[in-house]
Amino acid sequence: MATIGDVAQVAGVSRSTASNVLSGNKRTSPEIQERVRRAVDTLGYTPNAGARALATSQTRVIGLLARFLDDEFAPAMLQYILGVSNTARELGYDILLVSEADGARALQRITSSLMVDGVVLLNVAERDDRLDVLRGANRPGVLVGLPGDPSGLDVFDLDFAETGRLMVQHLARLGHRELLLVSQPDHVVERGGAYVWRLRDAAVEEARLRGVTLRTVAAAPSQPEVGADLRAALDAHPDVTGLLVSNEAAAAALPFVLRDRGLESPRDVSVVGRFSAEFARTFSLPYTSIESAPDRLGQLAVRQLVRRIESPGGREEAHGVRFISPELVDRGSTGAPRPADGGTIAG
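Given the sequence above, the corresponding structure tokens read:
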């Protein structure tokens, strides 16, 4: 196995110069950098991560704290994880995925050691017990998801309140006056999933301002329960002409539910969802949607974290909350509501 000494010999430089090129600790000429990199490629040299951590206090590893919760749709969560891991790889970092239930203890463990250079937190709750640990940690961190108190933290999230308003505005402008919002299960809110009520409350208020009736229901995060919940909601509200779907499992199940009832969108009911373009492709969803942008959120979060890790200016930069503005992707599932005598959506 090649060593740093072998790299130095092939490149024709000292061992310390080769080490400086690979660590970036000191400036060297482009010509020397190129010689060292060619030697690395020729020899297939891989730096020892443990030795590098001891020498530089850097591991080139980012900790990712995420859990696949029973009340969340796993394919949707996986998209956030991929967004983080893909960007980390592009920037030369590996990912340590930590999924244990006691997130505060896990965060304390990995930040108080040399295991990671920084952390990304997913599954952020309204009152998240990991945040005080992060604020006192000796490693920087960034959140994907807005907590109740974001002070002293880097936070990236979709603007869920504006998303709710935009969904209602889009259907109201088409003439819809009876809408149904399908949200996450109630226990997601109970455990701190504030994004659910941020979208819902903003949608309800926008509907009120526009003179639109908006019913709200919660649906399960998986089959077969979510299909039953959708059928029950459509039976309970047969006069709705537009569906707002802020539940990925419900969006994935909706084509089958509508088909079984002999309904089409937008002919019988207009549909606006909240999910990513990749999610739409994976589940062949034909619905107009607000782009949830998990890949972009992961990219922004990791790039900010790496600035904190690598740049003196980044370490001193003020913390803050950055929202992604919602964008409507039109897939042709919305239109003017059907005539009043055109029947109902009940089965």
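The mean pLDDT is 90. Try to locate this feature in the token string yourself.
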